[in-house]
Amino acid sequence: MSEIFGVYPAATTQFNDDSSLNLEATQNTFDNLIKDGVHGLIIMGTCGENNSLHKDEKLQILAAAKEVVAGRVPVYSGVSEFTTKSAIEFAQNAEKIGLDGLMVLPAMSYKASKREVITHYKSVANSTALPIMIYNNPISYGIDVTIDMLKELASVKNITAIKESTEDTRRITDLYNQFDDRFTIFCGVDDIALESIMLGTKGWISGLTSAFPAESVAIWDLAQQGRYKEAMEIYRWFMPLLHLDTIPTLVQCIKLCEQICGRGSEMVRAPRLKLEGAERQHVIDVTETALKTRPDLSKYK
Fold it and tell me: What is the Cα–Cα distance from 125 to 130, expressed in whole angstroms?
């Protein structure tokens, strides 16, 4: 299994105005991100509205992603199911369709114990040969996959990566001190991305990259070259947008940004609703300001 790295947008799932699945628009979203230089894709994560999709729709999206990406970059799918059995079934279907890996959440709807979380991850990993990324987001999902828990999961060979979304950059150093390079660590929080990259994360799974992929990749590339001052210039411009990734309505915010940038539709599926009032206007204002002040990336070549 080759190591993954770089900027992986948490790509959105596109819907028609009646909230039905728009596969063609979803494929276009994936294709455009790849053309803009991202290193891989995460589909059907939080921004992909995984838990708002029916089982058959998830399989359609897996097949559509496989078709349009056509091996150009690695594609990982979120695994966000209510039971371990359902997660295993999804993982096996993703493997059959030919995805490159899985980003697995703890089972939804139930705040599991340490033993239950470990059993869930081991069960899913043992059901497939695909590499598994642990999605650790205790703020959104109420479960922290701690270092002690990871010690028990480290023996599972195809658990290879961690999307670290605790919002605590200290965890990154703790992970490296405990495991060295056993796991590939990705930053999963947009507004601590550059700090996380400087601390050694091998990649960045990003929400706002769906709207501004070129700038995201530029931050990554500059940081890899040690050009942190230049990376910081873009990062500071980007920060008002990146803050939208850390609020409960992040999906609606990101999809509205995409729409303003001509990269997708703001349509979401209930229980999510399109933004209204002051919150909607704030996203419009922040996005339009960013577009007007967009950095000239050619000077960073």
Answer: 8
